[in-house]
Amino acid sequence: MTQQHEGAVLELDLGPIAHGGFCVARSEGRVVFVRGGLPGEKVRARVLDDSKASHWFAATREVLVADEHRVDPVCPVAGVCGGCDFQHVQIDFQRELKRRVVAEQLQRIAGIDWEGAVEPADADEDGLGWRTRMHYRTRDGVPALRAFRSHDLVAVPAEGCPISHPSGRAAARDAAAGAEEVQVVVSGTGADRTRVSVLADGVLVEGPATVTESCGPLQWKVDAGGFWQVHPRAAKVLTAAVLDGLQPRQGEKALDLYCGVGLFAGVLARAGARVEGVEISRRAVTLARRNVTGRFIVGRTERSMRQLSSRADLVVLDPPRKGAGRKVVAEILTRRPRAVAHVACDPASLARDLSLFAEGGYRPASIRAFDLFPMTHHVECVAILVPATED
């Protein structure tokens, strides 16, 4: 592996946005994925990774010709920290860039022409202060995050990470003084998010070990260190999209795959469905059984689906970033549900899964995208799939 170009500064004309938050440029015929730029800009960028012969990664260091949507980042370490990709981009245009990525991935991988928009979680959102769950390393006794494509640590500003929920910033500073790793969870019901739980090196040092999260009239118990959507409005936005797409009917059988503590199972049960779920985390399943009336099993989804009912009217799946894959999709198809809701945090894996569903005779009736991770390149999608023979 050659390192002779790492650290070199290149003058580049930036092309289209690509998956991962990069702009695509070329240098002497080689593709360079550039962080911190905007399509159409001319920049000087430092090469960060030249380990691949076909493409390099670089980060913008100087903007020579700026796009009109460029703004000054709120955070002084935004260009170095790996947490935010788009602090230099006006918030509405961040969503436009994400829209382009979703459309490109769906068309290129799945052959789907998508003309939707990336919807904000809140129309008045400025993209800051939303992240209710933060995982820090520490550097010199202060909270820190990984640098982009590096194991180096970048200390967050003294006033806290700007995208972290304000209620947890002081607790993060306090815990970091005596720990190497800190998790901060801000929880509460509705707009009242003032309860803070802190784990320092895996040990609870502040707040409840089990927190309460809500969505409308429903509540779920979640381990402080367990999984729950990090945006305060994410649960409401996603469950509304799933319910609107599936239109559950009284008495229908519904499967919740990768169910966690039962978020989607809970709203489906409230709508009258009989629910079953599967989740790899034993603790999450224990909580799901407390949170929701239904049947929940522990195991890897791809290995455990045959323990679930052999027929289902509805299926919800919220897989990890890599997607569901062929085995899970095949198991869903054997049940011939009347509708499937695929909740995806990665447009490329969503497109791959949609291609697999298409092979089995299911097409997307709708695909919606949501900006639940402002200032980052991440985007959440909800695809509703139905048998292709339906009008």
TrEMBL record:
It is an enzyme of class 2 (transferase). One of its GO terms (biological process) is rRNA base methylation. One of its GO terms (molecular function) is rRNA (uridine-C5-)-methyltransferase activity. Its EC number is 2.1.1.-. Residues 3-62 form the TRAM domain. InterPro entries: MeTrfase_TrmA_AS, MeTrfase_TrmA_CS, NA-bd_OB-fold, SAM-dependent_MTases_sf, Small_mtfrase_dom, TRAM_dom, U5_MeTrfase_fam. S-adenosyl-L-methionine binds at residues 229, 258, 279, 318. Keywords: Methyltransferase, S-adenosyl-L-methionine, Transferase. The active site is at residue 345. Belongs to the class I-like SAM-binding methyltransferase superfamily. RNA M5U methyltransferase family. This is Uncharacterized RNA methyltransferase Cgl1903/cg2084. It comes from Acidipropionibacterium jensenii.
